[in-house]
């Protein structure tokens, strides 16, 4: 069995993504960033990607994606998360005057 994500783990993920709280209580990833959450329950696994906002209410984690989907996950079923930087927001190749 995989270890469950803790609130401390979630806070670290939000901090690294430079997330800010919006008027609905969701923590939105910083400019050009998104989250991916890795979820497992029993023998089933799920990867939720392109998440731009997260909200924790008790033991439920609400994840809103860039595709206007909302997932409701049990925090205990989430075991890892990652942060992606959009490819358009990094340094461009070539010479910079």
Derived from helix and strand composition plus strand pairing, the structural class reads: mainly beta
Return the domain count: 1
- State the low-pLDDT regions, or none: 89-97
| Main sheet overview | 7 strands, antiparallel
Shape: globular
Helix content: 10-25%
Number of helix segments?
A: 1
Order of helices and strands: HEEEEEEE
Mean pLDDT rating: 89
Architecture per CATH nomenclature, i.e. the level-2 architecture? Roll
Q: How many E strands?
A: 7
The top level CATH class name: Mainly Beta
Distance between the termini: 53 Å
Task: Using the CA coordinates, give the radius of gyration.
Answer: 15 Å
Strand content: over 45%
What is the fold-level CATH name, i.e. the topology? Answer: SH3 type barrels
Tags for this model:
single chain, 97 residues, mainly beta, SH3 type barrels, seven-stranded antiparallel β-sheet, 1 helix, 7 strands
């Amino acid at each position: 069995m995989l270890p469950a994500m803790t609130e401390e783990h979630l806070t670290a993920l939000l901090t690294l993504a430079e997330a800010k709280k919006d008027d609905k209580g969701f923590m939105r990833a910083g400019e050009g960033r998104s989250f991916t959450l890795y979820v497992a329950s029993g023998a089933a696994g799920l990867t939720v990607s392109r998440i731009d906002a997260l909200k924790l209410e008790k033991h439920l984690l609400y994840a809103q994606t860039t595709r206007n989907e909302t997932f409701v996950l049990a925090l205990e079923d989430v075991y890892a998360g990652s942060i992606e930087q959009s490819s358009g927001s990094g340094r461009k190749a070539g010479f910079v005057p």
